[in-house]
Amino acid sequence: MYQLQDSVLVVKGIGKNLQDSLASQNIEQILDLLLYLPLRYEDRSSIKTIQEIKGLSQEETKIVKSDENQKVNTNFVTTKAKVLKWNEYRKGRLLISRATIIDETDQLNCIWFNNKFLKNKLIVGQEFFFSGNLKDGSLMQATVEKVADDAENIHTGRLVPIYSQLAGLKQGSLRRVLAEAIGKLHQSGDLEQVFRDLHFPSDIDRIILARERLALEEILYLMQISAEHKREHQKKNAIFSLAETQETQNLELPFELTTSQEKAIKEIFADLHKSAPMNRLLVGDVGSGKTIVAAIPANALVKNGQNVCLIVPTKILAKQHYNNLKAIFKDINFALLSSDSKLDQAATEQSTFYIGTHSLLKQLEKIKPSLVIYDEQQRFGVKHRQLEEYLDQQKKQPHLLSMTATPIPRSLMLSIFSHLDLSYLDQMPNSRKMATTWLIPKAKELKALEWLVKELLVEGDRKKQAIIICPFINPSSYGATENVAAVKESLEFIKKELKKIYQKLDIDDKKQLKIAALHSKLDKKKQIKIIEDVYAEKIQILVSTPMVEVGVDLPNADIIIIQSAERFGLSSLHQLRGRVGRQGQESYCLLFSSANTKQDQTSQERLQKFCKEKDGLKLAQIDLENRGAGDILGYKQSGLNNLHFASWTNSEIIKKAQEKFKENPNQESFLKAYLEKINTSGNIETATN
Ligand code: ADP
Ligand code: MG
Predict the structure, then answer these.
(1) Residue 167 falls inside a structural domain
(2) Which of 260, 292, 404 is the best mutation target for the ligand 1 pocket, counting ligand atoms within 8 Å of the beta carbon and taking the most?
(3) Could you give the CA distance from residue 335 to residue 318 in angstroms, rounded to a whole number?
(4) Cβ neighbours of residue 135 under 8 Å, at least 6 residues apart?
(5) For ligand 1, what atom is nearest to the CA of residue 582?
(6) Quick one: 397 and 454 in the same domain?
(7) Domain end: 382, 400, 430, which one?
(8) What range defines the domain where residue 466 resides?
(9) Mean pLDDT of the region 199-227
């Protein structure tokens, strides 16, 4: 019998080698393995005879359209048949395999393309399960499963889990290992069933229930650590507290603060006067001006002889904040720290405003900041391990200020995060208008590019700039190399189109727009160079992955084009849209969407709503309405939050978690160890690619 905490090595079928490759993917315990959830499920539940299959009308073979939300593909027919004959041949680069299969009732043709593994599998005279789509009377690209293999009934005749590649394991082997682990799991309560439902569900509803259970446990976990933080926190004193009220009037700001900025600054100052360390979260939509709200109190501390640290998601952003803040607060010392820069001894003698990425955390011991500011913090409950360790060692604590654009309603925040005090910026700086947003039909995309060129070529006191966000193929693979490929491809395509447009508009070489591509796999120095070129107006079109969502500030950008917009959550789109018009200039957001069939109508409607709605919170709600229960399955979906199983928008689950927490605040979530591990092992730069 296995326990969740047992090493995966105990599972039959997992040897030392496999254990090592699993470990390299952070899968060490049985629990880790069981939480390696299917990407989707294929419905191979009803096994039909060939005669029955042939009797299906064209309509019936389409059955139900695949349910994107539940990630269950029901567009399958499955039959159990013997291979009568088969062959394969090449047609150019295409490998084509054909087989005739037979059962007691009839014969059926099967066709595969580029499946080089078939020849190891198909044996004339042997019986297999074939699952595939029926097209023109042939079974296309069928998966082939040995009949004898499936004593446990895990590969066919049911909802079958499909996983992403793991440690070189084939789907079948992975299923077997999981079935073995679940079968011998000895666990009190209902967890055995939950895992069975996650991997080998008897129906779709069971998947939903099981995933809801994980979501609930995750929220519960957050509530628990929040309560824990609070208890710890209340015991400690701040390193430094401000003695007197600070004047903000005599600061020379390039703009007038909004009322909500002033209010937030007051709240922060009030915290800084107390002897207990501050732990505050500043929530504000993109462009609401969070940076200055944090920087004003930070400035006051530095003037009082203290060090402060501002931690941001990317190096580029660090550099930008550094330049911007230095220009505003001229009489204090600033330092930009990168992972490879040594802390300058001379500089440490002078109180300093340090700005850097997470690598700053390694230097906390030396810097001893009185205030740590976390920008674009998305894991509210969870501190970075290094910060946590540092804080644990300190008798006196620095004040903590986290900032986020994640649109979480206040009531929800309060119900989960009891350890945080909240400040909301619910007002945009006056001069700032949200970008005018258009959904561009496929047929008009080239026209839109032409419009873009014309806009960018308009002579003015400065050059206009545009960002083009590239399609990312798989929303769950933020940071994957696919994104890079997509950026490169996009760049080439746009360059080609631009050439045509220049010819058409008769624009000579000298005037043509400078264009560059930015993605996280580029050398960091190159990334910074590109951003600096954008700053210096040497580049007018920046083709980029969604890394600019939180990672870069381009105050001059006027226009953003988002390709494959339907792939993004509305909150992400909103973040991206907030990247343009940051100086109050007229700005535009153009959504290109590859969804253009009837089937995609809901996603079109969603994007249309987005064009009209400018409020980040409302957009998050629309996201919820449209995805409904599906949202909880989006455990890895891109977007603002870094929850793994739950979603901020699922208030039902949050309510349930609250009740459970009240009932028994001390009962630990079984996900605790797992979530601790993954929450602290990820680094923000890859997470926001
Ligand atoms: P975010 O909340 O997204 O981090 P920033 O702090 O980067 O927003 O501010 C966005 C832009 O708005 C910056 O260029 C900043 O200088 C400017 N800004 C901030 N506050 C105001 C204000 N009260 N009036 C005008 N511009 C402001
Ligand atoms: Mg910001």
Answers:
(1) yes
(2) 292
(3) 10
(4) none
(5) 11
(6) no
(7) 430
(8) 436-613
(9) 88
